[in-house]
Each structure stands twice: as structure tokens, then as C-alpha cells.
Backbone:
């Protein structure tokens, strides 16, 4: 399924128009959503080719109702659009939505007829119109001109030619129908993502010559969120980074003599090849190495042997433990100057040839520097925070505020939460691997967290559980010697509500180098639930995440095994 699109809806009338930004816009938006009540209006989808004329100019003179999903990319797209609305004095109301139910309720509260405009994107692989629809008028005319066999001999030759022609057309029709079934099956069985919504909004701002450095940074964060959550391929990421790099050069090109004249609160964005280590500039290098999935999985840090390999790695670089275990900002300058080259050289010896990656950094003034991945982890942690005083709307507002350079305190708070979340993720991975909680169900791997698991409140949330599942699968692939298991997907379950007896279930595609990031679990979950009458709730925008009654788990898994075998 094509995802990460910006959808825009409006009601006929002068009052207000509605827009929705979600991290995973499902193709079913073009139909009435399954499970919707009879008589409720279905969404009508259309593609737009000119996003400026067919979208922005339509809403520019209206009051807008803005729906935003709980997704970092969606938040970034929202920030860009808010800046555009402020520039053009457009009034709007923002409503956060966490799933289909909230979105449906909000729709029904504010309008009677919804239209969704989906920005066409070449990388979405949307089937061509002629491959899906066919005009049958010609065939009907031909079927009405059947001969009764009484034509003169001179017309029989022409009649025979028409018969041959009709036979060929019928054959072409059958071939077209077979090809259509194949195309629709391939299109509907997978869920996948296209270009970042934030990048789409930035392109709109650029087309209108209203793009700012802040908007460019939000587009970068939106793209980085896709990459961190494995929503896009490495090739797609590199391609989009190249497109954004040109904008970075255009917005941040300054001569050397201009650098000294910069104000203390200026914003500078730079393209960098930086280390693939989570939050290392705001943490200690040792903690970052231990809690980054990429390094933890390859060192196998859940084992004694893995801890020994990490010590050898640090010794190979000549870095004292005293230095790597203190905050990165407090390390000796002489060590930090060549740190990236030292780590890259030693990492190659341990099979980590892509320890550095293409990314961007931002400077707020002369003190505050953040990598795009830092902001993604911080914003994600604020949104998924399980703190007692937090609520869905409150978390959303705090996450949205953290993207503003005027609220750096919120961003630093998000960084501290992110450290806790990364530690909890790696501790849970170590526990699952050391206690052999991952079992093979035949066509997929399965892991279930129990009620007493530490940080279970965090992992009952969809984004955190999805991140844990992907990191767990990568770590398992690095640790197992079973070649077949290395090619299997993972289904993971975590308790959601003890009172209601529900669990959150997420499906993750196989971890392979050639993975196209297509997830087939959305359709598989639907079929398994339907065939067993399992009580499930498909409320998340990401179709590979569902809520399931714990009592129905066994029959649901049995059906899933049968379906995927």
C-alpha cells in the first residue's frame, strides 16, 4: 500500500476545508473504510497533478481544519503547512488523530461529504488507468452487429475477417483481465511508503518561493524519520538526501567573511557524513555504542563474548574507557577531532562497513547542534511517552513544540526520554534473546512479551513496539546460525490493557539486504481475523499493527500460520 502521502478533504460550502497528514495513508481511503457504519459518507479519492493550483490555492481563502497523525513525518509536514498558512494569513484549526476511529469521528463532526486529494508520486507504483479500467462501448457495438448468415458471398470474406478480429479482441480481453488481476493483487497485498509528506510540503513551499531554512529542516527530519523506521529503501533515502542537499546548499551558502557577522541565534544546516550512532553527541560514546541497534546487533552485546568484542573494538581505536564513558562534549578535543575516521577504520575490521551515513545537522546559534536523527528520536519519544501525567493530546503538542527552535528545552527533554527508550529497547532485546523468547512458527518468527516485562507500558504503544520489533529481528538475524530463520519475518505481541484483555500485535517483514520494505502483514492480519472470527481492531494507520483479544491469540496465530504457509 502506498503510504506517507498528504490527503486533503473539503466540504462544499464557504465555512472550512479539512486536511489530513498521516505517516501511512492507506489505499482504502478511496473506498468506504471497512467497518464503517452504513449510511456514513465514503471518501472520494482523486489524484492531483498540480499541488499548488489543485490544492493550496483551493484552501488558501478558506478556514482550514487540519488533521495530523501521531507520526514524526506528519508533524513535520504540519509545521511546514502552518508556516505557509501564517505567511498567507490562513485561519486553521489543528486536530491530532491517533487512528481511524478518531479520524472518522472528527470527520463526521465537521462535515458531511469528504473528498481526498492525493498527490500523485512516481515512486508509489500506482497502476495506470488503462491497466485497471477499460471502455467496453466498442465491444457492445460489435456484439450488436452479429450477422444472421444471409449476407451475399461478397460479404462473407469481410464477415470472416470480423469474426477473426472479434476472436482476437476476446483473447486480448482475457489477457488484459489476467494482467489486471495480477496487478491489483500485487498492489493490494503489500503496504509500503512513498515520498515523505514533509518533503511534499516543502516542494510546495519551494514552488511558491516561500521556502525557509526552518521548512527545509522539517523536511529533512521527516525524511530521516522514514529511514530510521525502515519505511523506505536505502536507495530511496540516498536519492531524497541528494534532492534536499541541493536546497541546503542554496539556503546555507555563505562566504567566509560572512560567517563572523552571523547573529548568535542564526540557523545553519549542513550536509554531513556522520556516525550511525544514536544520540552520541548528547550522550557518552560508550552508551551510544551499546544502545544503537546497528552496533549492538553486530557486536552481540547481550552476550559476554559481545561485551569483550566491544572492549577490543575500543582498544583497537586507542580510546581509554574513561574517555568513552564520559559525556561526548567532555571528551578530549584531540580525540574528538579524528574520532569519525578512527571509528570507521576500526569498524571495517568488525564488518561494519557502513558505520557512517549521509545525513544533515543543524546549528541553532553557536552552542546547540543536532543531527536529524537526534530530533527524530527526541520527537518520537515525546509522542510515545508513557509518563503518568502524559496524555495523547499532551504528548502530541509537546512533540510538535519540540520541532520549533524557540523551544529547545522541550527538545532536550525529548533527548533524555529517547535515551531511556533506547536503553529499554536494548534491555528488552537482550532479555528476549537470552531467554529464547523468539520461536519459529513455520512461515514466520513469533515473540510475545509478558505482563511483567519492564517498560511494558512503552512497548504497548505502536511506534515503540514497531521499533523494538525491527531491532529485535536485526539482532536475531545477527545471532542465529539457522539460515532459514534469517529470511523469516517477525510477528510480535505486547500486552495493551489487562482490564480489557487485549494485546498489540505488529508484523515486520524479513530483514534482508535486498528488502524493498514492503509489508504484507496488513492484508494477512485481516484474512486471519476474518477466517477465525477473532476479535481484532484495525485502528492504526499502519495496517501491520492491530489490537487483538488475548483469548483469540492462539486461533489467530494458527490461521496466520496456515495462511502464510
Residues:
Amino acid at each position: 500500500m502506498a503510504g506517507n502521502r498528504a490527503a486533503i478533504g473539503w466540504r462544499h460550502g464557504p465555512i472550512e476545508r479539512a486536511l489530513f497528514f498521516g505517516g501511512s495513508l492507506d489505499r482504502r481511503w478511496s473506498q468506504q473504510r471497512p467497518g464503517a457504519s452504513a449510511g456514513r459518507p465514503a471518501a472520494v479519492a482523486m489524484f492531483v497533478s498540480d499541488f499548488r493550483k489543485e490544492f493550496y490555492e483551493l484552501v488558501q481563502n478558506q478556514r482550514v481544519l487540519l488533521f495530523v497523525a501521531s507520526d514524526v513525518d506528519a508533524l513535520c509536514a504540519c509545521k511546514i503547512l502552518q508556516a505557509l498558512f501564517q505567511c498567507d494569513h490562513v485561519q486553521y484549526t489543528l486536530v491530532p488523530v491517533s487512528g481511524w476511529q478518531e479520524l472518522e469521528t472528527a470527520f463526521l463532526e465537521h462535515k458531511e461529504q469528504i473528498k481526498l486529494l492525493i498527490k500523485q508520486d512516481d515512486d508509489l507504483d500506482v497502476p495506470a488507468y488503462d491497466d485497471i479500467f477499460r471502455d467496453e462501448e466498442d465491444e457492445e457495438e460489435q456484439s450488436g452487429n452479429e450477422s444472421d448468415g444471409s449476407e451475399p458471398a461478397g460479404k462473407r470474406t469481410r464477415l470472416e475477417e470480423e469474426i477473426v478480429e472479434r476472436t482476437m479482441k476476446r483473447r486480448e480481453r482475457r489477457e488484459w483481465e489476467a494482467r489486471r488481476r495480477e496487478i491489483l493483487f500485487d498492489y493490494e497485498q503489500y503496504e509500503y511508503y512513498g515520498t515523505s509528506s514533509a518533503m511534499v510540503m516543502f516542494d510546495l513551499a519551494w514552488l511558491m518561493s516561500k521556502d525557509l531554512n526552518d521548512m527545509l529542516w522539517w523536511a529533512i527530519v521527516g525524511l530521516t524519520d522514514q529511514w530510521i523506521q525502515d519505511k523506505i529503501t536505502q536507495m530511496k533515502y540516498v536519492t531524497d538526501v541528494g534532492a534536499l542537499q541541493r536546497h541546503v546548499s542554496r539556503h546555507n551558502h555563505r562566504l567566509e567573511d560572512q560567517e563572523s557577522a552571523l547573529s548568535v541565534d542564526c540557523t545553519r544546516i549542513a550536509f554531513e557524513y556522520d556516525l550511525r550512532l544514536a544520540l552520541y553527541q548528547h550522550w557518552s560514546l560508550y552508551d551510544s555504542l551499546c544502545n544503537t541497534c546497528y552496533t549492538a546487533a553486530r557486536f552481540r552485546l547481550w552476550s559476554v563474548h559481545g561485551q569483550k568484542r566491544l572492549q577490543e573494538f575500543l582498544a583497537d581505536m586507542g580510546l581509554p574507557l574513561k574517555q568513552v564513558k564520559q559525556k561526548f562534549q567532555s571528551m578530549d578535543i584531540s580525540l574528538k577531532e579524528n574520532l569519525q575516521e578512527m571509528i570507521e577504520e576500526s569498524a571495517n575490521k568488525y564488518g561494519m562497513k557502513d558505520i557512517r551515513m549521509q545525513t544533515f545537522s543543524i546549528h541553532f546559534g553557536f552552542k546547540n547542534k543536532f543531527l536529524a536523527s537526534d530530533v527524530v528520536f527526541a520527537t518520537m519519544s515525546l509522542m510515545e511517552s508513557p509518563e503518568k501525567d502524559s496524555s495523547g493530546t499532551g504528548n502530541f503538542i509537546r512533540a510538535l513544540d519540540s520541532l520549533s527552535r524557540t523551544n529547545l528545552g522541550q527538545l532536550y527533554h525529548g533527548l533524555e526520554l529517547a535515551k531511556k527508550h533506547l536503553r529499554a529497547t536494548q534491555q528488552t532485546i537482550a532479555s528476549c534473546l537470552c531467554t529464547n523468547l523468539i520461536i519459529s512458527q513455520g512461515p514466520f518468527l513469533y515473540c510475545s512479551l509478558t505482563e511483567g516485562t519492564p517498560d511494558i507500558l512503552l512497548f504497548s504503544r505502536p511506534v515503540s513496539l514497531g521499533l523494538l520489533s525491527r531491532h529485535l529481528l536485526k539482532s536475531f538475524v545477527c545471532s542465529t546460525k539457522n539460515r532459514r530463520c534469517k529470511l523469516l519475518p517477525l510477528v510480535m505481541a505486547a500486552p495493551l490493557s489487562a482490564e480489557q484483555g487485549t494485546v498489540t500485535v505488529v508484523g515486520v517483514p524479513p530483514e534482508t539486504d535486498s528488502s524493498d520494505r514492503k509489508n504484507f502483514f496488513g492484508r494477512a492480519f485481516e484474512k486471519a481475523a476474518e477466517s477465525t472470527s477473532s476479535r481484532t481492531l484495525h485502528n492504526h494507520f499502519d495496517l501491520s499493527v492491530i489490537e487483538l483479544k488475548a483469548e483469540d491469540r492462539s486461533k489467530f496465530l494458527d490461521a496466520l500460520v496456515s495462511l502464510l504457509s
